[in-house]
Structure formats: C-alpha cells, structure tokens
Amino acid sequence: MLSAYITLIVILIFLALVAQRKPEVSHKEILSQAVDNTLPLLIRIPAAILAGSFLAELIPKDYIVALLGEASGVTGIILASLLGGALPGGPMIAFPLLLAMFKAGMGTPQLIALLTGWLLLAFHRIFAYELPMLGTEFVRRRLIVCLPLPLIAGFAAQALGQWL
Amino acid sequence: MSVIAYLKRELLDRSTLFFIVLALVAGGALWWLQGEEAFEIAATSSGVLVLLIAPIILIAMIISCYVRELIPTAVIERWLGSESGLRGLAVAVLGGAVTPGGPFAAFPLVVGFYRSGASFEICVAYLTSWAVLGLNRVLIWELPFLGFDFVLLRLLISLPLPVIAWMLAKFVTRRRNA
To answer: pTM of whole model > 0.90?
Structure first.
C-alpha cells in the first residue's frame, strides 16, 4: 500500500512539473476534472467493497480447499480454473489459501490454473472495482476474452512439466 | 449543486443502487448465517480499506487527467488505439507489468486511457498483463508464499497470456462491429 502511494505520488509530481512548463494546461482544471470523475465513485465504491467482502465471507473456504486440495489431472485443471474466480478477497486472503492447497497435495498445473483464474476473474475485484469504474459492457467483453486463459495456463504448465 | 441533490442523484444511479442493494442483501445473509461478529469484522475491514484506498483512487484519477491533458488524443490513438498494432501491445504489456498497487490504482488509469482513445483490446492486454505478470504482486506475495520454482514456471507460462487476450479481444471487437 505504501509503495503504491509513493510510486503514484512520484508519477503525479513528475506530470505536474511537465504540465507546469505548458502554459495552456491549468492545474486547477485538471484537479476539478479528477474530482468530478472521483465523486460518483464515493458512494459506489464503498458499497461495492462492502458487498464484495460480505460475499467473500459467505464463500465456504474450507469446502473449496477440501475440493481442490488433491485436485489432479485434466479434471483438476478445469475445476481449478472455474473456482479461481470464486476465491475470495485480496492477496492477504488468497495467498495463504493457495499455500494451504499446495500443502494439501494439489498439483502444480492445477495450482497455476487456480492462481491465474483468481488473478483474472476474481469476482471480488470485478464487483468492487471493475464494474463500478468501467461498466457492464466492458466487463462482459473482458470476461469472455479472459475466460479461457486459466485453462491455457494450466494445460501449458502440465505440458511443460512433462517435457522438463 | 447542493449536497442533498447530489446525493439523491448519485443514490438513484442504477449501478450505485445495485451495489447498495447487493451490500444490504449479502450483509444481511452474513449476519443471519454467521452472526453479528462475522458481520462486524467484515464491515470494519471494508471501512478501513475504503479509507486507505480513497486517496489512491483520487491520485490515480488526477494522473489520468494530466495524461489526457498532456498527451494529445491523436498521440494516444497512435500508440494505444485500434490501429496501434504490436507497438501498442508492447506498451500495454510493459505498462501492466510495472504498474504498482492494487486494482484501486490500475482501474482508474484504464478509465482515463479508455476514454481518451485507447482501444478495448489494448485495455484488455494491459489488464491481463497487470494481473498475471504484475511484478509488484509477484515480489510481495507470490515469491514468499509459493517459492521461486513455482513463480518462474508460472511467469514463463503467463508471458503469452496478454498476447492471447489481445488477439481474442480484437476478434470479439471485430465480430461485434461486423
């Protein structure tokens, strides 16, 4: 979180300095544009984050771990790809869960499919950030495009593992 | 514009309303199924998260407004538009891999570029790269939890994914426009 703050502030300062050299760009106008863009999110994002974290709590985590713990083979890759999007929460919740499944005996290709599914399709992130900022049409099209990617990653990992 | 009129307009916005209803239903279900304590923990941690990320969203929005003002639309279209080809893809993949911070930083940047002329497939390539190749998350989370061998294999496999997403997105867009 701190690193995000620092990097973004450095980028912002750099851009403001560049803008300073261009008389036609008004800092005040930029700021009021940004505030106008952010204001509609002030109610939407907190409601979305609240909804996302309540939904994440409702997901039966233990059941998913048990279901995927010993996942193997092609069925395991398909199951992991599908359930990746259902893994709740941010990295502080997801990575300990992934580690638990790794230790429970889940295969590497299945774990890669699961992690890729979570990275691309996590419902929590879609609900809390992507939908409120980018809208249904964008999200729907992106999901169609990204749906096959966890499967591709899982099968590629399996093929590569046999070859290595 | 008065604050009340503003709140009223915002609260009646369809997607805001959707999230408010969803939060109420999910919160009610959580309280009912797992008790008051589980509800309170989830609500409090969400509140803290909102306070931590609200300034980041604003900063990211200011950045994207500066970018829009400083870079002419023609240049953005040339570099990130639907005709930008492999050059646009390379910029999107590199940019996605190095963007720091969570979704609260990446999505406002996408909003800015998408509105000022970046194409859908470039935005998808950027988001895919940010998700599967994001260095920040790899270094802070994945390496400590899952180890070097696993991360190396996953990154190797994930390298082509933004390109595949870009091609699929181009295909979806073309079919939609046809």
So the answer is: no
Residues of chain A positioned with their CB less than 8 A from the CB of B31:
none
Does the beta-carbon distance from A35 to B142 stay under 8 Å?
no
- Tally of domains in chain B: 2
The helix/strand count (H/E) of chain A reads as: 10, 0
Residue carrying the six token digits 């979570």: A118
Interface of B with A in 18-37 (CB under 8 A): 19-20, 22-23, 26-27, 29-30, 33-34
Q: How many domains does chain A have?
A: 1
Instruction: Kindly report the nearest CA distance between residue B126 and chain A, in angstroms.
Output: 11
Give the closest-approach CA distance of A17 to chain B in angstroms: 11
Examine the domain organization and report whether B105 and B24 are in the same domain.
no
Q: What are the pLDDT digits (tens) for B42-81?
A: 999 899 988 988 888 889 889 888 888 888 888 888 888 8
Distance CA B105, CA B115 (A): 16
Asked if residue B75 lies in contact with residue B87, where contact means CB atoms within 8 angstroms, the answer is no
Q: Quote the domain boundaries for residue B8.
A: 3-69
